[in-house]
């Protein structure tokens, strides 16, 4: 099979979404040519606004109770300690969620690059150049595999593991391919089995030209 040149919108989209990892993964160093110290601080302030708010509220409540209880230091300490404990728990949860997202993101993009990108782009290019071009049974099976792949991505999205910014970019790429005249013939057949695709067809039905 000839390797197609990659002018694919979805390929470019997935490359762009990789840049989001620098904002979504706090353990990754920010590239110096893409950000400044102030923009990096702003990003992290937005990301951990709820943690900062919990600590500020705890301090305010603690100081209020400190004076209401005739300056009992142990009350102030207990309230602040509770706030710190809550904020640490939230931060740990966010960090674990971010790491899981990074693993999913990397896995999905690697699989897309290795399994689907070249073949899908080849189908698009050949179908545009030759109106009589038909896909093989092998390629038809690959399109079904691609649908299952997209459905898996959507499943993780519904579970709250894929951020909206990333999903929106991926969806744009999916719709580009699924509306190709040859690919959508396969998609049309599979649409009747929509329950097998975790609600993917319901999600993008208004964007499919079927």
End-to-end Cα distance, whole Å, is 29 Å
Instruction: List SSEs in N-to-C order.
Output: HHHHHHHHH
Largest sheet, strands/sense/barrel: none
Main structural class: mainly alpha
Outline: rod-shaped
Instruction: Please mark out the parts with pLDDT under 50 across 5 or more consecutive residues, or reply none.
Output: 1-7, 25-37
Radius of gyration: 24 Å
How much helical structure, as a percent, in the residues? over 70%
Q: What proportion of the residues form beta strands (DSSP E)?
A: under 5%
Number of strands: 0
Mean pLDDT over the full residue set: 80
Number of domains: 1
Number of helical runs? 9
How would you explain this protein's 3D organization?
The protein is an all-alpha fold and 210 residues long. It has one domain (9-207). It is built from 9 helices and no strands. It has helices at residues 9-18, 21-24, 37-47, 49-68, 73-129, 137-158, 164-178, 183-190, 200-204. Helix 1 runs antiparallel to helix 5, helix 1 (9-18) runs antiparallel to helix 7 and helix 5 runs antiparallel to helix 6. 18% of the residues are buried. Mean pLDDT is 80; it is low at 1-7 and 25-37.
């Amino acid at each position: 099979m000839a390797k197609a040149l990659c002018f694919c919108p979805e390929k470019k989209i997935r490359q762009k979404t990789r840049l989001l990892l620098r904002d979504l993964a706090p353990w990754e160093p920010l590239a110096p040519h893409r950000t400044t110290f102030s923009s990096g601080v702003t990003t992290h302030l937005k990301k951990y606004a709820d943690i900062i708010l919990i600590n500020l509220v705890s301090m305010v409540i603690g100081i209020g109770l400190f004076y209401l209880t005739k300056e009992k230091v142990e009350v102030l300490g207990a309230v602040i300690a509770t706030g710190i404990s809550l904020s640490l728990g939230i931060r740990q949860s966010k960090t674990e969620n971010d790491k899981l997202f990074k693993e999913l993101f990397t896995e999905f993009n690697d699989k897309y690059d290795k399994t689907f990108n070249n073949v899908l782009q080849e189908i698009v290019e050949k179908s545009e150049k030759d109106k009589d071009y038909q896909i093989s049974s092998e390629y038809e099976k690959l399109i079904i595999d691609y649908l299952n792949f997209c459905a898996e991505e959507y499943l993780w999205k519904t579970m709250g593991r894929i951020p909206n910014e990333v999903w929106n970019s991926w969806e744009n790429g999916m719709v580009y391919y699924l509306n190709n005249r040859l690919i959508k013939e396969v998609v049309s057949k599979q649409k009747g089995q929509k329950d097998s695709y975790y609600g993917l067809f319901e999600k993008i039905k208004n964007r499919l030209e079927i």
